[in-house]
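Aggregate trends can hide what the representation actually does to any particular protein. For completeness, the protein is quoted in full, as a sequence line and a line of structure tokens.
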Amino acid sequence: MPGAFANYKHLLLLAALLVALVTQPLAAGKHVVARTAYDLFLGGVLVVMLFVVFEARWERWTATALALPAMALTVALNMAAPQLTVPAAVAYHISLAAFIGFAVAVIVRDIFRHRAISFDEIVGAFAGYLLLGIMWGSLYVLVELFAPGSFAVSPDIRWQLDDVHLRRALFNYLSFATMASLGYNDITAVAPVANTLTWLEVMTSQFYLAVVIAQLVGIKLMHMVGGPGAR
């Protein structure tokens, strides 16, 4: 990513992720054109990730292979016949979770490789945290698709499971609430697999925060002690 954007590439990624997360519920129940426009934007976010997160050629090829099914199915989900909706959604979320998991691994690896830290790299660490939550949201959707009823959902919000976009947004909400240990109890895991995924997310997100923040602080302290020329 040449030019001035190279210094703000993670800020661009973070802005795209926040827009995608905030506007996703707005696409639900709208005209097919509005839903398709949102899904095209979501596909664009995945393309942005390919250029922002992955630098080595093998990384981009691997990431592209993982993301292609999600990109292809992003719009197709709105047009699939009812009997194909669940299989298409399963394939979509498997592809998305694998792609995002690979992206988070690369982001964390790059943080540990740096000997100096910039504002954009700190933003990249936060973007990685958001991606971790989105990945787990997709895993929750997969569990619910394979075994409906794996989550106890309050009657006030259960209707959201019937819409593709609202369902994604609902499980992203569960994911971020779990990461923050908020526990609103309007949607909770009740099946064994769902319970396991929940505590795994808590452990993974806490590990991410502890290790990544410790690394960022360590790099910053090393840079301060070593002076501006420290690497």
